[in-house]
Design goal:
heterodimer, A: about 290 residues, alpha+beta, Uridine Diphospho-n-acetylenolpyruvylglucosamine Reductase, domain 2, Uridine Diphospho-n-acetylenolpyruvylglucosamine Reductase, domain 3, Enolase-like, domain 1, 3 domains, 5-stranded antiparallel β-sheet, 4-stranded antiparallel β-sheet, about 30% helix, B: about 160 residues, Ubiquitin-like (UB roll), DNA polymerase, domain 1, 2 domains, 6 helices
């Protein structure tokens, strides 16, 4: 189908975009890469009256380093993240995840800000932001607001952004010494919507976890930072302990049902991901099997 | 504000000026306004890849871009890549290997395949499949397409000094 008629304006600056959003509120939609917005418009799932195209705001594009923080402009495309030496060096989880975001032609247009503001529960980047402890930077007419990623995603396609605010950047702390990461998703076809996925960031202390952040996606309305991970920190990880953590994970998840999978299947896949993740991060092949019951 | 908007861009090397509605997507602009009907429209929501074109050198879904977003951009379609001879060998390999039947997906397949070969001159079959993962073909089962791209990569490698 084709999108219904709308008015279009090209924002000339962040201030100009904010003025337009202040004037039009939720009747307007911000167009960044458009790789989720335009399909939704073509399918007439949404019919905005005004499109505010921020594509020309070059200030919002690119990866910068401030001390030990990576600052990523909202308009930075997936392909730019994939090729960025700074991301590869300081946030390798994100680099691994990007290859699973849709397909090359879509990664050439889609942006990190667009993906986060869209907050699709099956998308990879919101979960990575939660695993990495990212800060989301939003600007409104009243100034700038900074939010922890954990509090930013509030539901299916819902975030803490108001219709008058623009997501301008995300900030990621550098991966620390002795850190390790894991990314894996189950999908029917490479690049398709995940059925269940996990982005994990850990700090290792010899053969134990000093810290473990497990962000599951496509299993709930928003990314889930698993509380069960705490059971595995500062303790020798045995198959028995992993089974206990796996049961706890199953209890804390409340997966949704769609045409791809039932809640029981999603819960099972999340447990499989947990076992594979812990096994890979600790280089313990013995933990990869038998811990999903 | 839903009036026609002025649009200036370059299509296959030729400067173009047009007036378009904001809702017009790039695929419809190329097909209806430019009469470049090699860019096919399948799903219109970014899943099938039949509308793949190049914008400023990068492959994109023409159904997921508004025509007005290509202001001052350079757009290349299958007609441009065909006429310049850039993909003549790839097209021949597709024909030789029966890598097309109905041909609906072929322009998008060729755009995606050429994009891969420009970035990685000697891809393995897994990389080829991954790069084409966003392009549907309902006839061939993909095997022959992967063969044709692999053969083209090999032949280009042999021609390189």
């Amino acid at each position: 189908m084709k999108a219904s008629a709308f008015a279009y304006t090209r924002a000339t600056s962040v201030a100009n975009a904010l003025e337009l959003l202040a004037a039009h509120g939720d009747r307007a939609k911000v167009l960044s890469g458009g790789q989720s917005l335009i399909p939704a418009m073509n399918l007439r799932l949404i019919c905005p009256e005004l499109i505010v195209d921020i594509g020309d705001l070059v200030d919002l594009r690119g990866v910068g380093v401030k001390g030990d923080i990576l600052s990523i402009g909202a308009l930075t495309r997936h392909v730019d993240l994939q090729r960025s030496p700074e991301i590869a060096a300081h946030a390798p989880l994100l680099r691994d995840a990007i290859g699973h975001v849709a397909h090359p032609a879509i990664r050439n247009r889609g942006t990190i800000g667009g993906s986060l503001a869209n907050a699709d529960p099956a998308s990879e980047l919101p979960a990575c932001m939660v695993a990495l402890g990212a800060t989301i930077v939003a600007r409104g007419c009243g100034g700038e607001r900074r939010m922890a990623a954990e509090r930013f995603f509030t539901g299916i396609y819902e975030t803490a952004l108001s219709p008058q605010e623009l997501l301008v950047a995300v900030e990621l702390p550098f991966a620390q010494k002795h850190s390790a990461h894991f990314f894996k998703e189950f999908a029917r076809r490479h690049g398709d919507y995940a059925i269940a996925g996990l982005g994990a960031q850990a700090i290792l202390n010899h053969d134990q976890f000093a810290d473990l952040r497990l962000a599951f996606f496509a299993v709930s309305e928003r990314p889930v930072l698993a509380g069960a991970a705490r059971m595995l920190v500062n303790a020798p990880v045995t198959p028995a302990l992993l089974s206990k953590a796996s049961r706890a994970l199953g209890e804390e998840l409340d997966p949704y049902e769609d045409q791809q999978a039932s809640p029981a299947m999603r819960r099972h896949l999340a447990k499989v991901l947990l076992a594979r993740c812990v096994s890979a991060l600790l280089s313990r092949p013995d933990l990869a099997v038998g811990a999903t019951n | 504000m839903t009036d026609l908007l002025q649009l200036s861009l370059v299509v296959n090397g030729e400067p173009v000026d047009a007036h378009v509605q904001p809702r017009l997507n790039l695929a419809d602009f190329l097909r209806e306004h430019m009469k470049l009907t090699g860019t096919h429209i399948g799903c219109e929501h970014g899943v099938c890849g039949a509308c793949t074109v190049r914008v400023n050198g990068d492959i994109v879904r023409a159904c997921l871009m508004l025509a007005v977003q290509t202001q001052n951009a350079s757009v290349e379609t299958i007609e441009g890549l065909s006429d310049s001879g850039e993909i003549a060998d790839l097209q021949l390999a597709f024909r030789d290997r029966n890598a097309l039947q109905c041909g609906f997906c072929t322009p998008g397949m060729l755009m995606a395949a050429q994009d891969l070969l420009r970035q990685s001159p000697a891809p393995d079959r897994e990389q080829i499949r991954e790069h084409l993962s966003g392009n549907y073909c309902r006839c061939t089962g993909y095997h022959a397409i992967v063969d044709a791209i692999e053969a083209t990569a090999r032949a280009r490698g042999e021609r390189r000094p």
